[in-house]
Amino acid sequence: MRPDQDTRTTDMRLSLATEPSSPSRPNEDFVGVTSGAVVLLDGAGTPGGMESGCSHGVAWYARMLGSTLLAEVTQSAAPLTELLTRSIKTVASLHDFTCDLTHPGTPSATVAMLRRTDDSLEWLVLADSVIILDTGTAEPTVLSDDRLERIGALHRAELDALPNGTPEHTEALRRYIEVMNGHRNREGGFWTASADPLAAEQSLTGTVLADQVRAAALLSDGASRLTDLFGLATWRQLLDLLANDGPQSLITRVRAAEHEDPQGARWPRPKTHDDATAAFWPFPQPRLL
């Protein structure tokens, strides 16, 4: 699906945009739409030169899990947590005979899902992708799982003190990832979709009345950084940008900020650029007669 392509059904219109961190790297994000549902994943793994135990890679994992989730949500009205459990099992079965899925660096992904029924919106988030609901109030409702960020903040001081792009930063990033792998999918740590289907039970979920929501956005952390890392827009301003100019405009603003701070001096971060994906789903309000 091309960036900013509209997807329409009788009651559904979305705009999507996704962009890799670099033209020379595969996009490890995934976004897909089926009638009445949106799925967004942000793949995670190990940087080049580090062992992962998997011959397929992070982009493959994100695509496989995302497409499997889309198939599940199309075919079943089961709770979103159950659909994620099934999907993790399915994808694990595709490569457990060729790859070491017990390796701490095996590919994983964040998950954000939104499904609309006749009168409600069901949501699920796992790890640091974000769902924003515009309920018509001054500040929108932001649905996120901050366990990864809370754990990461405890171990990122050395990494944040070093300029991006230097050998020292690269080595510190590897050490940071090794430490974070030790906290992934463990009690007291953070949870992502990977090889263990039990991770799905750690998802944050909820339901809201559909008629209370004017629009929704799903963002990978490479897109949400305009607000939650750079502080260049409030969540309301970010939603307005999506509504007025579309998801590609959001990614363009993120890239501009990244280019202004290539070494992470103003905004310390593990990656100067990250894959960025955004989906915007407006809900037409009923007209008063």
From TrEMBL:
<feature type="region of interest" description="Disordered">
    <location>
        <begin position="258"/>
        <end position="278"/>
    </location>
</feature>
<feature type="domain" description="PPM-type phosphatase">
    <location>
        <begin position="26"/>
        <end position="239"/>
    </location>
</feature>
<feature type="compositionally biased region" description="Basic and acidic residues">
    <location>
        <begin position="1"/>
        <end position="11"/>
    </location>
</feature>
<dbReference type="InterPro" id="IPR001932">
    <property type="entry name" value="PPM-type_phosphatase-like_dom"/>
</dbReference>
<feature type="region of interest" description="Disordered">
    <location>
        <begin position="1"/>
        <end position="28"/>
    </location>
</feature>
<dbReference type="Pfam" id="PF13672">
    <property type="entry name" value="PP2C_2"/>
</dbReference>
<protein>
    <recommendedName>
        <fullName>PPM-type phosphatase domain-containing protein</fullName>
    </recommendedName>
</protein>
